[in-house]
Amino acid sequence: QQQVKQSPQSLIVQKGGISIINCAYENTAFDYFPWYQQFPGKGPALLIAIRPDVSEKKEGRFTISFNKSAKQFSLHIMDSQPGDSATYFCAAINQYQLIWGAGTKLIIKP
Amino acid sequence: EAGVTQSPTHLIKTRGQQATLRCSPISGHTSVYWYQQALGLGLQFLLWYDEGEERNRGNFPPRFSGRQFPNYSSELNVNALELEDSALYLCASSPIRGAKNIQYFGAGTRLSVL
User: Fold this and answer.
1) What does residue B108 show for φ and ψ, rounded to 5 degrees?
2) How many helices, marked H, and strands, marked E, lie in chain A?
3) pLDDT by residue (tens digit) across B38-70?
4) B95: phi then psi, degrees, rounded to nearest 5
5) CA separation (Å) from B71 to B24, B25, B34, B77, B103?
6) Choosing among A5, A21, A42, A105, which should be mutated to test the B contact, i.e. which has the most B CBs within 10 A?
7) Which residues on chain B are in Cβ contact (under 8 Å) with A94?
8) How far apart are the first and last CA of chain B?
9) What is the pLDDT of residue B98?
10) In A15-103, at which residue ranges do the beta strands (DSSP E only) sit?
11) Does B100 contact A105 at a Cβ distance shorter than 8 Å?
12) In whole angstroms, what is the distance from residue B19 CA to residue B79 CA?
């Protein structure tokens, strides 16, 4: 069964620090890699996404780094803020399926 | 533009009862997905409907079922409720099959089984 392995399961970062969440996939046929952010009691919301022909994509304080040869991608949150405290899910998509990572609970300490 | 809407927001049932959850996708979206999210855990895929047909099903017993209506809205039915069915049930929609399959989520229905 195809998987997307996400780590760490939980992460505590001081305010102003850099939060890094990693994902690794197995199927080279995936062609789109989104990250979702979920606050307690809410549904996940699309945060940022990247295609495999790009090594990095930045939107504000959020950056996706993509390593095609290693089949790995990561989310970096710069200058992390308490409002970034949420659960983050990575995913891998092709035309027919979307495979989810298990999620990372991020806590930003003030 | 309205997002994915789910109703009810909260639902309280007792063991053995049936629950019906409803979802209206974003206008123009034909695919609807259902997920179960137990407290603090990840997204467990339940069902995928597209153009009124069930396209895929997760590893859940048959008492979890659903349907998609001609207007692309969807219902999730859970029969013979068990205590462990207590969870947040999320609905997502995406544009026509064959597109990038990005999913847009509703706020969920919190089901509590007593």
Assistant:
1) 95, 160
2) 0, 11
3) 876 788 999 999 889 998 898 899 999 999 999
4) -65, 180
5) 9, 9, 17, 18, 18
6) A42
7) 101
8) 37
9) 52
10) 19-25, 33-38, 45-50, 56-59, 62-67, 72-77, 86-93, 98-100
11) no
12) 7
Closest-CA distance, A101 to chain B, in angstroms, reads 8
Three-class SS of residue B2? coil
Residue type, B47: L
Q: What is the pLDDT of residue B102?
A: 82
Environment class of A1 (CB within 10 Å of its CB; exposed 0-12, middle 13-18, buried 19+): exposed
Pairing mode of beta strands B44-50, B53-57: antiparallel
The bridge status of strand B10-13 relative to strand B109-113 is parallel
Two structure tokens written together for A32: 């789109």
Other Cβ atoms within 10 Å of A96 Cβ, number:
11
Tell me the residues of chain B between 46 and 85 that have a Cβ less than 8 Å away from chain A.
Answer: 56
Interface test with A, best of B105, B109, B111, B112 (most A CBs within 10 A): B105
* Angle formed at CA A97 by CA A93 and CA A101, multiple of 5 degrees: 60
Q: Is A66 on the interface with B (CB under 8 A)?
A: no
Nearest CA in chain B to A31: B100
